[in-house]
Design brief:
Blueprint: H1 18-34, H2 36-47, E1 54-58, H3 64-73, E2 81-86, H4 93-101, E3 105-110, H5 113-119, E4 124-130, H6 138-149, E5 152-160, H7 164-170, H8 180-191, H9 198-202, E6 208-215, E7 219-226
Parallel strand pairs: 1-2, 1-4, 2-3, 4-5
Antiparallel strand pairs: 5-7, 6-7
Helix pairs in contact: 2-3, 3-4, 5-6
The chain binds S-adenosylmethionine.
Length: 236
């Protein structure tokens, strides 16, 4: 299946639109069904050799995925500073409060992901992205991934897997009550998703150890770890 990137409806609806709000609720269930929080948390725990101080979530949406990460990882990684970057963040005060209860300090940043990576001061120990990279065509994605690589030592992304099983699953989301926006965007997301080592091919070549492949029943996991970390350099 060839990779095709098309606009998603949720990206163009105003944050307060009721269909957008319902679709964001659907997305929480989709993430749960795909197991994305567990996939990312396991990948991060394996990649980090010591507790990180800072973690950035690119395309953080309503912050619920970050909250799930905080609940899974705050015990081994206490007091982490979490930055939730999104062009149109939709994070409820209750989600920020729930993150704070885990002991992590969350900050919401309204910014384009690539602009943020290019302009932020300093580096993040870890950068994550969930159901975000598939929004970009290969050229824009290569630019974004190079900007991320310049800012961190560990990057992990859980994405839609481009394949028949995920496509069939995306077409069945009406059965669990997902609305028209979610049903449309899910199919578009799978067609724009990833397979093989497509993300590795867009990541900078030298100085990284890369892992990429299927995860769960419909996700595609990419993990990049700076080889400098093996020698004790870096914060993570
Ligand atoms: C499919 S949602 C995923 C949200 C969240 N990561 C999750 O798993 O629930 C994609 C998010 O990316 C954001 N987004 C799209 N393009 C962006 C960009 N260029 N920079 C920052 N955020 C962007 C959208 O606003 C949206 O919240």
């Amino acid at each position: 299946m060839k990779r095709v990137v098309e606009p998603e409806w949720l990206d163009f609806l105003p944050a307060a639109d009721p269909r957008a709000a319902a679709s964001r609720r659907d997305l929480r269930r989709v993430n749960w069904l795909m197991g994305n929080a567990a996939i990312l948390a396991d990948a991060l725990a394996r990649a980090a050799t010591k507790p990180p101080r800072t973690l950035v979530d690119l395309g953080a949406g309503d912050g619920s995925l970050a909250l799930r990460l905080a609940r899974r990882l705050s015990a081994p990684w206490p007091g982490l500073q979490l930055m939730l970057v999104d062009r149109t963040p939709s994070i409820a005060p209750s989600t920020l409060a729930a993150i704070a209860e885990t002991g992590w300090q969350a900050e919401m940043v309204a910014a384009d992901a690539e602009d943020w990576c290019r302009n932020c001061a300093g580096c993040a120990d870890i950068v994550v992205a969930n159901l975000f990279l598939h929004h970009f065509d290969d050229e824009a994605l290569s630019r974004l991934l190079h900007a991320v690589a310049a800012r961190t030592s560990i990057f992990a992304a859980s994405e839609t897997r481009r394949g028949a099983v995920a496509l069939a699953g995306s077409r069945l989301l009406g059965l669990i009550g997902c609305n028209d926006v979610t049903r449309h965007d899910a199919v578009v997301s799978v067609r724009a998703g990833f397979a093989g080592s497509e993300l590795s091919a867009l990541w900078p070549r030298d100085g990284w150890s890369l892992r990429e492949g299927p995860a769960g029943w419909s996700s595609h996991l990419f993990v990049a770890r700076s080889t400098a970390l093996r020698n004790g350099a870096g914060a993570a």
